[in-house]
Amino acid sequence: MGQALACARPNDEQDFFNAVQAGDLDFVASALRLQPWMICRTTVFDRLSSLHVAASNGQLEVLSMLLDRTLYPDLLNRHRQTPLMLAAMHGKIACVEKLLQSGANILMFDSLHGRTCLHYAAYYGHSDCLQAILSAALSTPVADSWGFARFVNVKDGRGATPLHLAARQRRPDCVHILLDKGALVSATTAGYGCPGSTALHLAAHRGCIDCVRELLAWGADRIQRDSAGRIPYVVALRRNHAACAALLNPSTAEPLVWPSPLKFISELNPEAKVLLETALMEANKEREKDILKGTSFSLPPPAHSDGSVDDDDISEANDTELCCICFDQVCTIEVQDCGHQMCAHCTLALCCHSKPNPTTLCTPVPVCPFCRSNIARLVVAKSKTKEEGGKDSNGSKLKKARKSRNFGEGSSNSFKSLSSAVGSFGRMGGRGSGRIADSGDIPDKS
């Protein structure tokens, strides 16, 4: 699926471009030795340079040789598209990385829709290219001149951000990446789609459950209206996307949202973040099942869910690792400074129930329920053996406490409030299941 050629040129130039397209390195090198000016030639109609042709067809060796012979990787075709834009359009990740290494400008706009390479990667759903471009934006002059957050939310000629394009084109992986990198979930369009549309409006228009799920989990507003006065629920209804409409119905329970305190924890270990995101998506999946109960609609599993853990997968030796808050889940998250451990669900409940200070309107920093120290870094919990966890009597005490589910009169206020929060977060499924069974207890807002 490379760039088609249309060059009414003499045979030698036609052969040269055909060789570039096919990746014939020897022929291209020989042609350039005999006729060095050939590297400056373009096709007649689209004004494609050899760099454009090599990049769009994924011919990395030819592209590398051409880049070694030119100091300018940002040649423009008829529509002012750069080789980087075409490589991102066609998902040629190796060529994208090579062009970025060669200093290709990531903030050039085409003349078709005023889009950048980031728009192209999001529109066509090439998440690897999207990641590469975003990573490059952290260390290029763009980060210094524009700022990374502004680049992630750059708008095209019709006011569409990369997030808008990814949602409209049903690209949930790209939606997730962009939201994780700071895309504004409630940004509105200008002339793209219906003016004033958010990414949630566009996902509802296309009936993409996975995109709707991602946007809701990152705090998309279900009652935000476009310029026609429509909320996403109405958009989904009018397009006959009944399952999407059911989830977007403002009268149904609010989904759990990625807790704002976790967004500001200074160092959230990537692996720990995946565990927390999985727990949140599984909780919302149970809510979705409850909403669609009794209907003919079925939902695909969340894109970032690893599924549940069977009871047989948890041995008796792991009883010493059970979360001391819910006594149901195995500890998977550890507070780095103090070393205390919790399950992902209880960590989410702890952060979801951190309410803003009424005098300052600032969300308090989450604190460890065991020692009341501030949580500055969360990591994946280290597995403990029986010897590390203490004598067998300690394990038997944990089992007994798990069966009783009674925190006792001597429990601290922090444990009591957190256990209440876990209850409202939703009853856990079977032991070690990693799921929340009763979505009716899920709080409306985090």
Give the number of DSSP strands.
4
Largest sheet: 4 strands, mixed
> Residue-averaged pLDDT, rounded?
78
Lateral arrangement of strands in the main beta sheet: 1-4-2-3
Oligomer: single chain
Beta-strand residue fraction: under 5%
GO molecular function: ubiquitin protein ligase activity; zinc ion binding
Pathway: Protein modification; protein ubiquitination
EC number: 2.3.2.27
InterPro entries: Ankyrin_rpt (IPR002110), Ankyrin_rpt-contain_sf (IPR036770), RING_XB3-like (IPR056760), Znf_RING (IPR001841), Znf_RING/FYVE/PHD (IPR013083)
How is this structure best described in words?
With 446 residues, this protein is an all-alpha fold. It has a domain at 267-271 and 289-441. It contains 22 helices and 4 strands. The chain has helices at residues 11-22, 25-34, 50-56, 60-69, 83-89, 93-101, 117-124, 127-137, 141-145, 148-152, 162-168, 172-180, 199-206, 209-217, 232-238, 242-248, 260-263, 270-291, 344-352, 386-389, 392-404, 413-425; strands spanning 267-268, 333-335, 341-342, 377-380. A 4-stranded mixed sheet has the order 1-4-2-3. α6 (93-101) packs parallel to α8 (127-137) and α11 packs antiparallel against α12 (172-180). It is globular and about 75 Å long. The two termini are 45 Å apart.
